[in-house]
Structure formats: C-alpha cells, structure tokens
Amino acid sequence: MVDYAVLADTANRLITANGRSVTLSILDKTPADAAKPWRGPADPRSSETTKAVTAAFVPPSGLASLGFAARDDELVKRADEVALASLGSGDTTDLTLYNELVEGSDRWRISQVMRLKPGAATVLYAMVLNR
Fold it and tell me: What's the sign of the alpha-carbon dihedral 58, 64, 69, 73?
C-alpha cells in the first residue's frame, strides 16, 4: 500500500526547495448592498483571508506531462502560468477556495485549481493563473 502522506511531504520539500514565496488570497464576496448583490463587494480585499505558501511555476503546456488532465483544455490554453503548490501531509488547508495569488506587486487571478489527491492526503495542487 502506498503511503501518500510521504509523497505529499516529498512534493512539499521539492517545491519549497525550488519554488518562490507567494501569498494566496480568498477575496470577500459579501455584497456592499444586499438589495443589489450583482454589484458585489465595495472592496473585495478589505477582509481577505491569506495564506503564505511556496509555489513552483511551470508553463501551461507542461501540465499534461505532469499527469493532470484539465477539465477545460481551452481554459488551460489561455492560462498565463501554472503554479504548483504542496502543503505536506500535516496541513489540511483547502487551496481550491483561494481566488488570487500574489507575488510581490504582481496579482494573478486563479481561474482553476486541480488537486492531485490519490489517497487521504492531497499531494499537489496545480493552480491555473491569469493576469
């Protein structure tokens, strides 16, 4: 039987050694006016939730060679970058909930997140990024 927690820790170690520090953000989605929810929040970053992680960037064309099958190939073709992140076996944070990746002064919209989770532990996240 494969111990996926060990694989998650290995992925985390490799990404930490070769990646860059980034911050992931969950933007506030509470509308400013409940009577007009289609207008959204006045400032979605006013109460954002953030998480610092390390991510390794790969070209979108390399996603299939890493074993990820995209649900929407056109979305991946239009991607500017793909960021790989792994939290290891001890962190249970769900990175599929995050909307934005921030690296220095650059902000990337996370348009899709694919999770490699063959067992109980998530081994790797692939985040499709757009400017």
Answer: positive
**CA-based end-to-end distance of the chain:** 41
The rounded distance, in Å, linking the Cα atoms of 62 and 84 is 11
Could you tell me the pLDDT band of residue 71, with boundaries at 50, 70 and 90? low
CA 62 – CA 67 distance, rounded (Å): 9
**What distance in Å separates the CA atoms of residue 45 and residue 30, rounded to the nearest whole number?**
11
- Collapsing DSSP to helix, strand or coil, 46 comes out as coil
Supply the pTM of this predicted model.
Answer: 0.80
Give the list of residues 6+ apart from residue 78 with CB closer than 8 angstroms, or none: 130
Q: How far apart are CA 101 and CA 91, in angstroms?
A: 19
Enumerate the domain spans of the chain.
Answer: 4-130
Backbone φ and ψ for 14, nearest 5 degrees, come out as -65, -40
